[in-house]
Amino acid sequence: MRYFLLLLLLWQLACKAPSSSGEKTTGTAPRVTAVPAYSGGLPLDKIRLPEGFRITVFAEGIKNARSMCLSPDGTLFVGTRNEGSVYALRDTNGDMTADLKYELASGLRMPNGVAFRNGALFVAEVSRILRFDDIENRLANPPQPVVVYDKYPTDAHHGWKYIAFGPDDKLYIPVGAPCNICEPENPIYCSLTRLDVDHPGAEPEIVQSGIRNTVGFTWHPGNRQLWFTDNGRDMLGDDIPACELNHAVRDGQHFGYPYCHQGDLPDPKFGEKRPCSDFTPPAQNLGPHTAPLGLEFVLSSSWPEAYKNQILIAEHGSWNRSKKIGYRLTLVRLGEEGQCISYEPFADGWLQPEEQVWGRPVDLEWLPDGSLLVSDDYADAIYRIWYAGGN
């Protein structure tokens, strides 16, 4: 019955008259396809979770699934990095798995970042921000995007972006270092910027500096202070520097790059120019080369109280370390004063013995029922983790 209803819905969408606006979609013609029931082909039994937690597949076959955002009406938007496409996923029958996939755009340049606001989907390419208006009413026939801003640097190196709207209703957009280690002359590099998207012609302002490459940030649900991950530099060996979880209590802080890493390690090339004491140290040093990306505070009322307002991080995994690490979700616990007091695995098993990798977590997103979505650009899947207690 499920597949009959899906086929009927797909037939109705295919027969729907095109928009009278005459707008064209980006890239190739958009496609709407049924997402089949989970095939059972991923080794989910290898994933280790705390007692009482369960994992399943929300959607598979989502090639290069990267950053995610969820609309109030339940549409999950998914960006990609290598594929150049942006997708929308819908769960039309409420069974907590996606059953429809819409390709909203293709042929874009690393459209990693997605953010939703006031009915519009914002997409970050390397050098520009796009906006798809009234998108949920036009999933099967997306409008031509509006170019919101197109003057960000064009460098591909660390050019893919994670984006999100902050508590101030402005769009936060990072600009990574165009290198492994360098001292760029343009101050917009190695920064987190924000853009007032409600004022055409507005220029981005630099909010935080000294950031090599953040591909995940969020705000504390209570005090609204900014937290973000940062990927440490390469080519200093297996064990240094640590990747970082950073905490900004105000605008205008500098987090060390390229002069100081992990709060106490001067860079061998640039470290003599400025001491580590000049900069804001990490709130928590993470594993070296673990490539921390998306992060979320635990907001779910269905999870045990001990997890409330603690931080979960998706660690994509090392690419140039002689022994792989990462490929997991980690938990950073905070003390009563907001300080980090522990850093521990939450979900692992995507990295198996003999360095066999079958998945790489990228981003995290909460569903209204209190379960957590996890994107994986290696297994081309999106997982759902929930707390089942003793069930």
Plain-language structure description:
The protein is built from one helix and 29 strands. It has 391 residues and is mainly beta. The protein has a five-stranded antiparallel beta sheet. A four-stranded antiparallel beta sheet has the order 2-29-28-27, with no helix packed on it. The protein has a four-stranded antiparallel beta sheet with strand order 7-8-9-10, with no helix packed on it. A hairpin with a 3-residue loop joins β18 and β19. 44% of the residues are buried.
Helix and strand arrangement:
Layout: H1 2-15, E1 32-34, E2 53-60, E3 65-70, E4 76-80, E5 86-90, E6 100-105, E7 113-117, E8 120-124, E9 129-132, E10 146-149, E11 164-165, E12 171-175, E13 191-195, E14 205-209, E15 217-219, E16 226-230, E17 244-248, E18 260-261, E19 265-266, E20 284-285, E21 292-297, E22 311-315, E23 328-334, E24 340-348, E25 351-352, E26 356-357, E27 361-366, E28 372-376, E29 381-387
Antiparallel strand pairs: 1-6, 2-29, 3-4, 4-5, 5-6, 7-8, 8-9, 9-10, 11-12, 12-13, 13-14, 15-16, 16-17, 17-20, 18-19, 21-22, 22-23, 23-24, 25-26, 27-28, 28-29
